[in-house]
Amino acid sequence: MSIRPPTLREKRRYLLARIDPAGTLVEPKDLYYVVYEAVVSLFGDVAAAAMQPSVIAVEKGYALLRCRRGAEREFAIALSTLSAYRDCTVAIRVLAVSGTIESLRERIAALVPQDVALPGQDTGPVQEGTPGTGACGYRFDSLPVDAVVWNGHKVDVIEKGFKNTRRLFLTTEDLEIIHATTIPDGL
Amino acid sequence: MYGYDSIVAADTPAAEVCGITVIPGILLTGIPAKDVQSRVKKCRGTGSVVAVQVGDNGFNRAIAGTTGVHILRGIHAADKRAFDHVAAKIAADNNTALDIDLSVIIFGRGRLRQKAIHRYLDLMILYRRFEFPLTISSSAQSVLGLRAVREVTGLCSLFGMDETDVQAALDGVGRVTDTGESLVKVIS
Predict the structure, then answer these.
(1) What domains can be seen in chain A, in order of their start residue?
(2) How far apart are CA A117 and CA B28, in angstroms?
(3) ipTM
């Protein structure tokens, strides 16, 4: 099927939304299912079909969403009823609506400080102690470790070293057993 | 950050945190009307916002006319005859607010949310006629349960509240707790 000329294409609007709490790892596909469920639950199948909600991308803790022009207000209302993602409580805060993705990406660039890298990214210079860098100063039971997964309040760390490197999954029980008070505040 | 200058928190002393005024709140649930009156007397002068969970129709009429009760809340879960035009008139005369709890709209799904929206639609009919105060709450237990003013406006539009109504309802706590002592009283 050939692509329609621009004048015959349906107009769309793009929404920029912040995902709270910060650091929540969100898969765009899973977010799409949650968003679609919220829209259908609130407005029904007919309105959802007319609205055509979709998730374009999740970047740096922000989500880029799309809907048909004229339905952005209802879409934002449905997004404010979204409260859970994979058994975690989340909130989607709509920050801006635009006609192009590019302008929303510019807004993200303005919102996200350049020197802070979020989990799953390796862009730009990073601060000391940031997860994923080799320069962090975290210690776990007197062993130097590096944070590899940082999901909200849950942190997975990996033991540093040339050999016998093992991954440590911290649970509440672990922390109680090995006296988690030795972990510095930064972790 | 979300457009509020004060919050009402249950069982919390009055404070000011980061420029946000914390108003202490008291929620009375599951106690008879006579006990409510005695509890309200104890709370008088403490600066607390007193909210009472709605019950049946007779209870609501009695509570709406009780001086010192600021807010009736939980209308979404009440019987459809629990708050009628008589109770609405009493609430308007006594300056008692009806609370719109958005947590049911945000976190509820299916029949629970449909019932809540229906109750609020019914409440708005009485509000337009009698103009009793309204308040809006989110029952948030963390920042994730809070919604910004713009989001609240959107959610309230689901049951026919416009922006003016929402602004008035967000001012509702100040309206019902204002004793009016500083106002000029005309006696003639």
Answers:
(1) 9-111 (3.30.70.3250), 138-182 (no CATH)
(2) 47
(3) 0.87
Best of A75, A79, A81 to disrupt the B interface (most B CBs within 10 Å) is: A81
Token look-up 């005859």 returns B81
3-state secondary structure of A7: helix
Domains, chain B, in order of start with CATH, read: 6-177 (3.20.20.140)
Query: Could A83 and B157 be called an inter-chain contact, meaning their C-beta atoms sit closer than 8 Å?
Result: no
Mention every residue, 6+ apart, whose C-beta is less than 8 A from residue B46. Answer: B24
Give the integer Cα–Cα distance in Å for A64 and A71.
16
Distance CA A34, CA A85 (A): 7
CA angle A80, A83, A85 (to 5 degrees): 125
Question: pTM score, two decimals?
Answer: 0.77
Chain center to CA of A175 = 26
Q: What residues contact residue A35 under an 8 Å CB cut-off, 6+ apart?
A: A53, A55, A65, A78, A79, A82, A92
- Shortest distance, CA A72 to any CA of chain B (angstroms): 11
pLDDT, tens digit, 9 for 90 and up, residues B106-156: 999 999 999 999 999 999 999 999 999 999 999 998 889 999 999 999 999
DSSP class of residue B187?
-
Q: Residue by residue, what is the 3-state secondary structure of A92-152?
A: EEEEEEECCHHHHHHHHHHHCCCCCCCCCCCCCCCCCCCCCCCCCCEEECCEEEEEEEEEC
Q: What is the CA radius of gyration of chain B?
A: 16
Q: What's the pLDDT score for residue A52? A: 94
Question: Average pLDDT over chain A, rounded to whole?
Answer: 78
Which position has the higher pLDDT, B45 or A37? A37
B117 inside 8 A of chain A by CB? no
Q: Assess contact for B68 and B50: CB atoms under 8 A.
A: yes
Q: List the single residue in B144, B151, B157 with the smallest CB-CB distance to A21.
A: B144
CB–CB of B155 and A77 under 8 A?
Answer: yes
Distance from CA of A82 to the nearest CA of B (A): 7
CB-based contact, B148 to chain A, within 8 Å: yes
Instruction: Assess whether pLDDT exceeds 70 at residue A134.
Output: no
